[in-house]
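Aim 2, interim progress: modelling of the adenosine-5'-diphosphate-bound target.
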Amino acid sequence: MNVLIINAGSSSLKYQMFDMKTEEVVAKGICERIGIDGHLKHTPISNGKPVFDEDITLPTHSEAITAVLDKLTGAEHGVVASLSEIGAVGHRVLHGGQSFSESVLIDDAVIKAINDNIPLGPLHNPANLMGINACLSAMPGVPQVAVFDTAFHQTMPEKAFIYAIPYSYYEKYNVRRYGFHGTSHRYVSAEAVKMLGGKAEGTRVITCHLGNGSSIAAVRDGKCVDTSMGMTPLEGLPMGTRSGSIDPAIIEFVANHEGLTREEVFDVLNKKSGVLGISGVSSDFRDIESAAADPSHPLSRRSQLALDVFRYNVAKYIGSYMAALGGADAIVFTAGLGENSAELREAVTDQLRGLGVTIDRDKNKARGKLLDITGEGSTVRVFIIPTNEELVIARDTKSIVEA
Ligand code: ADP
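Predicted structure of the complex, ligand included:
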């Protein structure tokens, strides 16, 4: 069965199509600038046909889906002969609120629930719904599955998800910690369990998804018990452009002193903070690492400070999750930065030396591949595990459709 995976954003739509017999990606691509003008890059993988990379008019997500399906089935760039060869569609959906603890087949009730959760995911859920609706009308009768970023974290106990604010806000508006990147944390924690011997019961794993957006999860017996992102993806670690956790009083202080509205302050916290805000250089860790390493760069010191703040916070979260789990059997590094930055892994684990964590510095030079980098005598195993959220969505979609 071919399964098409859709990740719809407000002005973009990413896709990958998997052949589930082999779990290989047969084609992938991205529509950008939807609603502005439009661009589609489509890459056939299974048959060596040429890449399509052109501006095309994409007024809405509907035209984007139509263009994607045309390319997947067309003679020049296609990988299948007709739409009938696409057996199911899997959608990445940001916020499942308290409604979903696992992936589900999409029907009217599921669409209503995703819609009801828009107040919790106002930036993403409307775009996810546009992607779902566009597919439902372009491919009637093809089963569609929703896979939620929040679902894996629904096993957190109340003491981990309740904020210390009036309880009525939870009762009235569902204000609580939800957590995100759940598909990634679920995948890499399951891979870690395999590396620990295969039985989830009794395992304590800390998963660090460190990319543009970053979050850490504490996983006991294969189930999430705590995570660093909150009601929204703004809480927790400092990120590329997001502040992560700050003193909430700063919001009013900055609004008053800079003459900003509430919305403007949140825009600063989402888009102009994190390592970009500290370094003044970039949100991309590669740029910051090279500026920090170049003493003649005017923002070299601030770049090093941004890296130090980020790495220190990663280590602090890992330490706190060792407390939450009563120790740890494994720490996992994943996503763009976690998989690729040896400097980051070294700095973080150096900070954790007092807790018995060491890595093998030679093995740590690896990037982007599954590896056990545990140091001699370390009481906690340390793994690099490349994440694969799309594959998880494809597997969930296949198993739900076939059930
Ligand atoms: P997203 O959250 O957008 O999915 P990714 O997981 O792809 O992000 O991570 C992207 C980030 O990973 C980049 O912004 C960059 O900071 C970091 N990154 C990727 N490769 C490297 C590398 N070789 N060294 C350091 N950082 C890297």
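The longest strand covers residues 24-32. The first helix runs from residue 61 to 73.
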